[in-house]
Amino acid sequence: MEITPLGAIQPFQQVAKIQVRLCRIWKTKDQKDENEVKSIDCVMVDVQGTGIHATMEPKIKSFFMPKLIPGTIYEIQEIVAVRNRKFNIVVSHEAMLEFRRKTKVKAIQYDGPAMPLHFFNFIKYENIAASKDGQLKDVIGYLEGIQQVQRQSCNRNQIEDKMEFILLDDRKNKARVTLWASYARTFDQQTLEAQSHPIIVVFTSVKPTNFRGGIQHLQKKSLEELLLLNPNDNQNNHFICEATIVDIDTKPRWCYKACHTCYKKLDESTGAPVCPQHGIINGLPLPWYKIHCIVQDDVEQTTFILMGRTAEKALNITCYNLFYEQENSNPHVLPTVVSNLIGCQKLFQVRFGKPKLSSSRCDLIVTYIHDDFSQSPIALTLSSQSSLSQTLENTSKSFQTPSTPGTPYIEKKSSTKRKLAFQSGGEENPKTR
Ligand SMILES: [Zn+2]
């Protein structure tokens, strides 16, 4: 039986045999009911580099789902080609494929010419606004900033949770990606924040929209205004604040010994260091930055806590390096690279730490240090009904198949660069925003 190239598939035919790599797979949910799955969708690519969108009804998913693992190469027989959608097109192709009950799926040992690992339709940031061709787009960029979940009206009379990501391309153009509703609520931000910088993210099947507002609604506050806010009402908000680091408090340690997995402070009271979550630590504890920066603007002074990866990014050196390799092992004596922060004027993005039982004050934690906020971003937005993948791209087995939508899939690319990719699916009837 001949293998049909994906590029040769026409709508309204039964395709006898294809050989493809499954790039990504996700559940498309019902617009009105987040819990109801309308279809299972995937993107496949063949050896010629042609991509195609394939779909199956939920009622036959149990038949195929256990077999379908992203990254795997399959031989698929008796799959049906139908006409591709007119709107929210996932892959530009005249046809899309439908799994039927009689469809046969078999993972194969493939030894032919290299088959692409991914299939994306990346959009250039400068083309985002102009893109009105009914196609969903994929976008890649450096993660510049995140705005945590907040409530906002997404449609007439409807308030929804949303979460925004600011991406930069290689020419420093900005794009903003918005997750709505359950995708915003279930996104695992902690895993993301714990990654080494720079973080490269891929959003797939997002819908370009016109931009409303601007980056300014990451509200800019003076220190005085910031200190007047009730932390309990603002646990999910980030603020932009321009200030100068005038000193660093050395009474608290500039770093602490942390768990390699969760970065929580280790308890050494009983001898061997123990993580409250992961138990006894094998090997050296991980030194982790926690720098108490005294910051000042024209009117006020307060303390910002610069921690973990954010501090590594600001200092351009890992805490591990500074502590062990450059032998700055006294946590009360500032290494030069840390004390050099004194005098720096920065645009800080900060959030409130968790409320403390012992005090009415909350820590102010730096989440990003921005260089330039003057340029208005271009927008790329997901509608509230888009679905995120349950089974994400999978080229590395170690982080395979997160179980909740929006869980980032992380692929370790090198010691300094990691890639994060997650998936949103095509929705049938987008709301107009
Ligand atoms: Zn731990």
Strand content is: 35-45%
- Report the span from N to C terminus: 48 Å
Structural class: mainly beta
Using the CA coordinates, give the radius of gyration: 24 Å
Main sheet record: 7 strands, mixed
CATH superfamily of the largest domain: Nucleic acid-binding proteins
Report the helical percentage.
under 10%
Number of strands: 21
Secondary-structure element pattern, one letter each: EEEHEEEEEEHHEHEEEEEEHHHEEEEE
Give the distinct bound molecules.
zinc ion
Mean pLDDT equals: 77
Q: What is the CATH architecture annotation of the largest domain?
A: Beta Barrel
The count of domains is: 3
Name the shape in a single word: elongated
Can you tell me the CATH class of the largest domain? Mainly Beta
Q: What's the short story on this structure?
A:
The chain has 433 residues and is mainly beta. Helix content is 9%, strand content 37%. The structure holds zinc ion.
Summary tags:
433 residues; OB fold (Dihydrolipoamide Acetyltransferase, E2P); 3 domains; seven-stranded mixed β-sheet; five-stranded mixed beta barrel; 7 helices; elongated
Helix and strand arrangement:
Blueprint: E1 13-29, E2 37-45, E3 51-56, H1 61-64, E4 73-83, E5 95-98, E6 104-107, E7 137-155, E8 158-168, E9 174-180, H2 181-185, H3 189-193, E10 199-206, H4 223-228, E11 239-249, E12 255-258, E13 274-275, E14 279-280, E15 286-296, E16 301-307, H5 308-315, H6 319-325, H7 336-339, E17 345-352, E18 364-370, E19 378-381, E20 409-412, E21 418-423
Parallel strand pairs: 3-5, 9-19, 10-21, 16-18
Antiparallel strand pairs: 1-2, 1-4, 2-3, 4-5, 4-6, 7-8, 7-10, 8-9, 11-15, 11-17, 12-15, 13-14, 15-16, 17-18, 20-21
The structure holds zinc ion (ZN).
